[in-house]
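Mods, move this if it's the wrong board.
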Amino acid sequence: MYKARIMKLAVMLPNWVGDACMATPALRALRTELPETTQICWVARPGPLAVLEGLPWADTTLCYKPRAKPPSASSSGVPLVLNRRGLVRALRKERFDAILYLTNSLSTALIGALAGIRRRIGYARDYRSWLLSDRVSVRSGTADARKDPCIENYLRLVQSIGCRAVDRRTELGLLQRDEAIANRCLESIGLSGHRPLLLINTGAATAQTKRWPIEQAAAAAVALADDLDVSVVIHCGPAERQNANAIEALCDHPRVKSMGRFDELPLGLSKALIARSRLVVSTDSGPRHIAVAMNKPVVSLFGSIDPGLTRSYNIPETILTMGLACQPCGSYDCHLRHANCMNQLDAARVVLAAKHAYRNSLAASPPLVQLR
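Not the wrong board. C-alpha cells:
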C-alpha cells in the first residue's frame, strides 16, 4: 500500500534519561536521513528533553507530564508543561502526518490516536497493536525487541520508515550555560582547583538492585582521590542529596565533595561535570549513559540487570558485576531480600577497575565535547 511522505513527524521519546541517551542514534538518523523538509517534533517528559538539550535534531518540542496541573509557563523561561489532555490538544492542533513511538506503553499509543494522527508507528506489543497503523514486529529474524539492546531496538523503529540508521554511537550536546553553572558548583563545593576530576554516581531512581552502598562508595572515593591525586565529585540528583552528602561526610577528605551541597541541580550541571571528568564510576543509571554519550571512560556497576540490554558502542566501558548465581534476575527489587549483587560489590574491586581505566585514559587524547 502506498504511504504518503511524512512532512510533519512527532517522536514520542522514552521516559527515562538513560533511555533518551540510548535513543540518540535513532534521533540522529531521523534528522540526517529523512528529507530536509521534514519537520520533527520531540514529545517527552522534562528529564529526557533536558538531557537532549543542545542537540540540533528537532525543530520543535512538546513537554508533558501525564498528571501535570493545567499548563502554565513560568516567568523563568521553563517550557510549557502539558498534561495528557493538553498534549492531545497540542498534537491535534499541529496536524502531524505521523507519530513514531520510542515508548512501548498503551497510554502513549492512545495519545496519538486521540490526537487524530493517521500514521502511528511503533512496536506491536503490550496490548496496543490496535492503536497502531504501522506495526513493527517485536521479533524479526534473530532480533527480539524484548531481549536485544535498547539502541538496536530504537534503530529498528527508524529503519521501519526508511532510515538506514547504521551509526550506533550515542551523542549529547553541551550548552554554554551548563559550563557556567558547573563553574559555580565546583567553586561552591570547594573543587575549583586544577587537579583532574573523577565523578562517582551511586544512585538509581528506579531500583534497589541498581544502587551502590554509600559506605563502599566513600571508601572508593578516598582511595581514588589519594592514589590518583584527583578531585572526586559525588554526583546526585535532587532526590539523592542526602546520600551524596552522607558520602562526603564519611570520606572527610578535602578533595571528595558532594554536588548535593550546591543549590541548583539541573541536568545541564550533570552533563557539564561529566564532560569535565577524566573518568566516571556509575551505577546503571542516567549519569552512566550521559558519560558514555560524552565519550568518557566509564566503570559501570551492574546488579540485577543484564548489561547486554543497555550495551553501548562508544568508548568501551568497564563492566563490573558480582556474577552471582541469581544475576541477572532483571528485577528492580531483590526477591531474595538481600540485594547482594550490589551490596557485595566492594570498594577494592571498583578501585582496581577505576585505576586501570583511568591510566588507560591518560594514554589517549581527551575527547572533545562540542558546546552549542
